[in-house]
């Protein structure tokens, strides 16, 4: 065993991508075991490795962790990206849940019928510009600091950058009315671990394509 965390998931973003982002931001190397067929998933199930019969599953520190949120919290705490006290942690949790909700709408978009896509795209743009991004813009303004919480780099910053880039893939000028978020994006993208993750050849996954969508539908019966 290499000692590196081992990620079990399909070879695409889905629910694992935020885990990849957080590990990369923390500068932690990880291995990936891709589920490519229904049989691969059934093998994990029959070996009793999936507590709730679901992935993501991450082997880390002798545990076989499931539940995305639990995995992320563990990594954030372990690598000192989860604030310095309970109140900072509470803020990080709130900001992360906001970006999770926004990314959740985007994550399901490729699996929806074509006729629903236009409406959902409009929903994403609307929610990003009227509900979520104004909050983070205000936090940055009120704090007057480089990061969302406590003037240091945390999970909340990593998660927000992931969400911004995801929305930009659908609407490239989404930040046009958010100058502080534009600067934030530039700053966080330049943190060396993140910069590396954003470069081609990293373990960051591309947006879903038709082949991946068909594979995921087949494996998970979505
Ligand atoms: N609460 C769990 C978590 O957050 O980890 C949910 C996990 C989950 O729904 N996992 C799916 C699964 O294992 C795969 S992600 N399903 C099998 C089952 O029997 O429930 C599927 C997904 C993708 C992309 I990939 C977008 C949305 C969902």
From TrEMBL:
It is an enzyme of class 2 (transferase). It comes from the Eukaryota. It comes from Crocodylus porosus. One of its GO terms (molecular function) is glutathione transferase activity. PANTHER family: GLUTATHIONE S-TRANSFERASE, GLUTATHIONE S-TRANSFERASE A1. Transmembrane segments: none annotated. This is Glutathione S-transferase. PROSITE patterns: GST_CTER, GST_NTER. The keyword Manganese does not apply. Its EC number is 2.5.1.18. Belongs to the GST superfamily. Alpha family. Residues 85-208 form the GST C-terminal domain. Keywords: Transferase. GO terms for biological process: glutathione metabolic process; xenobiotic metabolic process. It holds the Pfam family GST_N. Residues 3-83 form the GST N-terminal domain.
